[in-house]
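Dear H.,

Thanks for agreeing to be a second pair of eyes. The structure we're designing against is below in token form, covering all 527 positions.
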């Protein structure tokens, strides 16, 4: 046993003060103070105060105070106070107070108070109070009070009170009270009270009371009371002011909103009245849900019928009928105009057809007259000489007329006729005209031609006469107006000139038609 003072501390069992502390090994006991603390190993007992704390390993017991706490390892017991807390590992027991709490690992037991709480890992038990709560992992048990609550993970049990509640994960059991409730995840059981309720996820069981109710998801069982009800999925029981959102069994004012297989598919509000107590003064909100839905359907039907009646108003129907009438009238006018156009076109086609037929008949008759004039046998009967026939035949051949050759029927004169043809004598024009005149005088062709021409002229004259009568009916009222005391002399003079000129033209046309008629009559009477 030694007691001294050194710069770097003492070795073995000693008592004193050193700058870097003491080093003690194998069943030694050290008591003293150092700047960097004491170092004790293997069943050592260290007691003292230093700046960075004491270092103890393997079944050591350390008691003292330090700035950064005491590091202890392997079945160590650490008791003391430090700024950052103590660090203990493997079946350690730590009791003390630190600014940032104690750090314990592997089957540790931590009891103390700290600003940020204790950190425990693997089968730990934590009891204490901290500002931000304790952090526990893997089969931990946490009991204490903190501002933000405790954080527990994997098969943890948490009991305590915090401002924001506790956070538990994986087969946890949480009992406590928080301002915002507890947050539990994966096979958790939560019992407590929070301002905003508890949040549970995946096979959770939540019992408690929250201002806004609990939030449960996926095979959860939630029993509690909330101002706005519980929000959960699959099997929820609770009471809320605005109802639950889930497959739920509950009572609320506005009923539940459920999905999938719901027990309360038709909810009866707790505040609704029975049918026997409903009267005309009953509020709509007090009616049963079925009655509300029926009234809503009636209102929708009324609105639909009113919309239909708006479309079928008499004013709209009358305007549509008038529009149809106008369209029908326009269509009738178009059809009448088309019909009149077709009739006029038909008349024009008929007139053109008649004109073509007339020209065809006249052409045929002209060919007949020419054929008769070219027939020598007829002229021999009429004492036409062979010389005249030869001269006419020569004239026709020289002028390239497409007629057949004219030959005499007397075989004795054929040689003489051929000689005369070779001499190319000129035809006497008077002979040709004499034959044509003779044919026209002794045939009905001339009578038919001029007869039809006169008929057409008479029809045109009748049309002109009808136009004059219409003009006269139009002018008569003007004459009556002009018979007043102060007639317009200039207007009268112009009108008289127009009428006089038209009358004179018609009279001259009539005279010409009369002269033609007289000539035709004379020609028809001649033998």
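And this is the sequence the design step returned. I haven't edited it by hand at all.
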């Amino acid at each position: 046993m030694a007691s001294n003072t050194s710069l770097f501390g003492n070795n073995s069992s000693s008592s004193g003060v050193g700058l870097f502390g003491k080093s003690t090994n194998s069943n030694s006991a050290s008591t003293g103070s150092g700047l960097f603390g004491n170092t004790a190993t293997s069943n050592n007992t260290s007691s003292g105060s230093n700046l960075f704390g004491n270092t103890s390993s393997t079944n050591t017991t350390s008691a003292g105070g330090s700035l950064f706490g005491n590091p202890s390892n392997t079945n160590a017991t650490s008791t003391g106070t430090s700024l950052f807390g103590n660090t203990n590992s493997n079946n350690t027991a730590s009791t003390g107070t630190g600014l940032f709490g104690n750090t314990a690992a592997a089957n540790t037991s931590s009891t103390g108070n700290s600003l940020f709480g204790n950190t425990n890992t693997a089968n730990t038990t934590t009891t204490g109070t901290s500002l931000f709560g304790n952090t526990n992992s893997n089969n931990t048990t946490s009991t204490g009070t903190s501002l933000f609550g405790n954080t527990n993970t994997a098969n943890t049990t948490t009991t305590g009170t915090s401002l924001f509640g506790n956070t538990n994960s994986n087969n946890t059991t949480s009992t406590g009270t928080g301002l915002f409730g507890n947050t539990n995840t994966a096979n958790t059981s939560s019992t407590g009270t929070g301002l905003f309720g508890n949040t549970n996820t995946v096979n959770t069981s939540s019992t408690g009371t929250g201002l806004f109710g609990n939030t449960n998801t996926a095979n959860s069982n939630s029993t509690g009371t909330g101002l706005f009800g519980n929000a959960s999925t699959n099997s929820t029981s609770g009471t809320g002011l605005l109802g639950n959102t889930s497959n739920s069994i509950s009572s609320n004012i506005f009923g539940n909103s459920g999905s999938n297989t719901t027990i309360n598919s038709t909810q009866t509000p707790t505040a609704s009245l029975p049918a026997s107590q409903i009267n005309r003064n009953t509020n709509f909100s007090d009616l049963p849900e079925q009655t509300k839905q029926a009234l809503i359907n009636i209102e929708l039907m009324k609105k639909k019928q009113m919309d239909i009646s708006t479309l079928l108003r008499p004013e709209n129907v009358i305007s549509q009928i008038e529009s149809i009438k106008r369209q029908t009238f326009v269509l009738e006018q178009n059809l009448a105009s088309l019909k009149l156009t077709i009739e006029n076109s038909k008349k024009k086609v008929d007139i053109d057809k008649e004109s073509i037929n007339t020209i065809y008949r006249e052409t045929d008759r002209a060919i007949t007259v020419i054929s008769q004039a070219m027939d020598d046998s007829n002229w021999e009967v009429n004492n036409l000489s062979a010389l005249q026939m030869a001269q006419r035949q020569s004239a026709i051949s020289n002028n390239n007329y497409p007629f057949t050759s004219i030959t005499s029927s007397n075989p004795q004169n054929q040689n003489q006729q051929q000689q005369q043809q070779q001499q190319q004598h000129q035809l006497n024009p008077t002979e040709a005209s004499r034959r044509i005149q003779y044919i026209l005088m002794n045939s009905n062709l001339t009578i038919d031609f001029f007869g039809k021409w006169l008929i057409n002229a008479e029809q045109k004259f009748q049309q002109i006469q009808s136009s004059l009568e219409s003009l006269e009916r139009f002018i008569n009222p003007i004459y009556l107006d002009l018979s007043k005391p102060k007639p317009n002399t200039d207007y009268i003079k112009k009108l008289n000139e127009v009428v006089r000129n038209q009358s004179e033209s018609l009279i001259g046309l009539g005279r010409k038609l009369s002269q033609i008629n007289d000539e035709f009559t004379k020609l028809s009477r001649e033998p």
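Two observations from my side: The longest strand covers residues 29-34. The first helix runs from residue 289 to 311.

Warmly,
E.
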